[in-house]
Amino acid sequence: MAAVEPFYLLYREIGRSCSFYVEALAIVGAWYTIRKCISLGFNTYRALRLHLIPKLVGEIDLVKQYGKWAVVTGSTDGIGKAYAEELAKRGVNIILISRSKEKLEAVSRSIAETYKVETDFVVADFSKGREPYPAIKEALKDRDIGILVNNVGVFYHYPDYFTNLSEDMLWDMVNVNIVSANMMIRFVLPGMAEKKKGAIVNVSSGSSCQPTPMFTVYGASKAYLDYLSRALHYEYASKGIFIQSLTPFFIATKMAVCSSIISKRSFFVPSAEEYASHAVSTLGLSTRTTGYWKHAIKFALAEHLPEWIWAWFALYFLRTVRKKVLTCKMK
User: Fold this and answer.
1) Which stretches are transmembrane (predicted)?
2) Architecture of the structural domain at 51-327
3) pLDDT at 142
């Protein structure tokens, strides 16, 4: 008993001295929990406001909000075509820009007949450096351009290592994915600033949220558009201009034909029409969004992954895709 009593006294004294630290840790834990709950609630509200509420309360008048005409680059297939159709569905006149005159004529005629809006088109190959821009500038002169969608882009034929890319591919990535956006913005932004309204949508990519090996140059070019959009927003938001970085993941389009896994419609891989319907609804609400609530889940997870995990998984997955594509080519 003599030994037990001193041990009990010692334990009681240690407990008293530690009680302050236990209480401090409890306060820190409670504060952390409260912050996380508030953050979760805010993020949930923001997601509902962006992806659900616009579908419930009805569509905004894009013509009144921004202007009569929209310019869409890369608009004869995929996201560009679907986005142009979605804008036309809401009463906006459309100017299509792409390199195939036959496709432009067909899409222009289809949109005009289906949605009863005015359409026009400009034949332009953005891979030709400075060559296409004088004709584009002349075509857009004196038009009430309210919305610009920089969608045109070139993608890898299949995932590959940097040294396997041709010099032509490297030049195209810069001219088509980067230079075109700069020049198109330069043409329409002064008019928007003068009338103090307008919207610019730069179609980036989910691959830009973390370094993505095997799509290195493509991801880097799309990261440029993301950065450009966010910086321009701070420059021109006070002038009434809405600038959005649209960062979709895989969509079932011709650009994703390098793998059957990512080219077929599924839960996380929508059709271009489904994606465009959601993306247009985010105009005026978010300056940086995936445009589609299922892609927003993927983007949130991707941003919080350690970089090495993202890169390791991308390298593993895209190497597998590359191997399958090359095997099919050899057959």
Assistant:
1) none
2) 3-Layer(aba) Sandwich (3.40)
3) 85
